[in-house]
Amino acid sequence: MKRIEGEVPFGDTLAWWLEELWLQKGVPASQRSHRFDRPYLAWESVRLVRNPFFENGTGFEGYWVGQANSAEEVLDALLRVGRDALDSQTRLYRYQQSFRRRLINALHGEKVDFDVLAEWAITLGAILGRLRCNIHRNPQADTFRRETYRQVEGLPLIEYHEVGDDLQQVYEIRDSEHPERPRLYVDPNHLRTTDQEAWQVAAALGKFGHPLVREVLMAKPK
Of the candidates 183, 187, 206, which has an alpha carbon nearest to the alpha carbon of residue 82? Predict the structure, then answer.
């Protein structure tokens, strides 16, 4: 088992929203949110230990198993994902520069508001929806996904602890054997400037699918 400890993404902001949900609904949202643990643990398993292409992955990589011939090919695909997300937001919010700045700031882990959190979560959901459609034509990716979910069966629930005004998390994922071929380490500093931003998007999007983020988005505090 690999034990992961650290801050919950946007933990200080989420802690405040979760407190509001507690007051409104009478049940701590951090307890109810375990319904989303399994997909998040599967995502983290791919990102951290089951990644078939990279030493420092994003969580998306399983969708290219059986389709891509090299890590470099997957990197190009991930950069397209990031660029498409940025281009889409530029078109949607062409005249809302302050909102676009807030979106970029959120990728750096800075304080977020509900609208920014929702926008990136919607973007993540749309990307995953398109990639999952391709699984029906890619049995190897489907097998990889099923095996990933099988490995998270029976894992402990994510634990949350309040530390001051912030939230910390502890969870476990199963170690996996490394693939036979060496995995690529992606150094953003070695990418072109435009590709660095695209990689940042692809690498950061997964945190907008965190169980507590999903819980808050589904029950917006008034």
Answer: 206
pLDDT at 31: 63
Confidence of residue 165 (pLDDT cuts 50, 70, 90): confident
Could you give the number of structural domains in the chain? 1
196 phi, psi to nearest 5 deg: -60, -45
0.70 exceeded by the pTM? yes
State residue 65's pLDDT score: 96
Domain that holds residue 76: 2-218
Can you tell me the distance from the alpha carbon of 81 to that of 14, in angstroms, rounded to the nearest whole number? 27
> How far out from the chain centre does Cα 66 lie?
22
